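Supplementary Data S3. Sequence and structure tokens for construct A.
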Amino acid sequence: MAKIGIIVALNCELEMYLKDFDAKPTDFDGIFRGYYASHEIYLTLCGVGKVNAAVCAQRIFDMAKVDAVINSGVAGGVSKNLGICDLAISDKLTYHDFYPLDLLDKYAPGISVFTADSFLIKLAKDSADTLISSGEDFKYEIGTIVSGDMFVEDDAYKAKLSEKFGAVCTEMEGTAIAHAAFLNKVPFVVIRAISDNADSKADMTFEQMAEIAAKRACLIVEKMIENY
């Protein structure tokens, strides 16, 4: 039995997992424990943004001593290959709003691009393939996810994220969780369903699609845990 941490940013995401894992509060404020496919699951709601995400990641590492952590949620699509409710699986993560980014290479932690765990990436890919073959209608792409403390809703900035980073999507927490996981030597992966296109219509699309997209990410993560 593994101990797996799941970190989400939105209440609708947390509620899905609490129900599916029959998770209950622990002695640690804001951390819930449930069981799924013979594994012990620790859930926490970090809220929006990098600081919230890093603090919650450190708490779940310290208190639950998890064997791996998954950040599940929604994101703005950058890749032309992904549409609404399609899936992005991280192989690498970095910050798009840290300037100059190479300061992280020059000083501690000596790295600015965080590489997801290869086993967890394969688990996510195989889980997506299984769901697609069973009739779920979506595409997925494995690639670079970029994070920053901004909701991207600008076509020009979206183009910059594609050109500079080759990003598949953009969000606000994943890289901070990856950063904390790297420092704590905890395997990680980020799974994001596309809720909007990070363009001038992003705000309206996000409000309409966030919960539906979050459910798609939840399905993938649950399949991953079944096969862990």
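Construct B, processed identically:
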Amino acid sequence: MRLDLRKIIEVPGGSVPFEHELDTELLDFPSVTAYKKKPYAKGRVYNEAGILELQGEIDAEMTCICDRCGSSFDLAKVTPLNATIVEEDEGDNPENFVLDGDEIDLDEVLSTCFILDMETKFLCKEDCKGLCPKCGKNLNLGPCGCQKEIDPRFAVLEQLLDK
């Protein structure tokens, strides 16, 4: 979707609201198996002293796979939007987006902000215990029956404990 900003480029204090549903094909993450509700963005672009700022948020509901235990879980994510729109490319700042004439490609801005805010690890809960490296049991459901392997360097000390 292209957002026309012609009305506010030369008008300090002016703003243009937007509401847009993101295309999930652009948002491919290995740990996200499905979007329960397509990511939905709402906000505005405003001219503050000649600088165009995009502000708002993206709401998304996803089904994910935990990177530690492999369990499926639901995740509701709110991504804050705060980006600057410039007339010319002023470097490699990922939060700056370049105008295309008097318009901005809203899909590009929103998907970039969403991707940059995405977690690097998807966890079902902050203290997820993961899987047992021996038997593969999910340790969040309880301990497994495996005995801990003893470091061979300490085997002699274990013999002392047995006596």
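Residues 106-117 form the longest helix (12 residues). The beta strands are 2-4, 15-21, 32-48, 51-65, 72-86, 96-98, 103-105.
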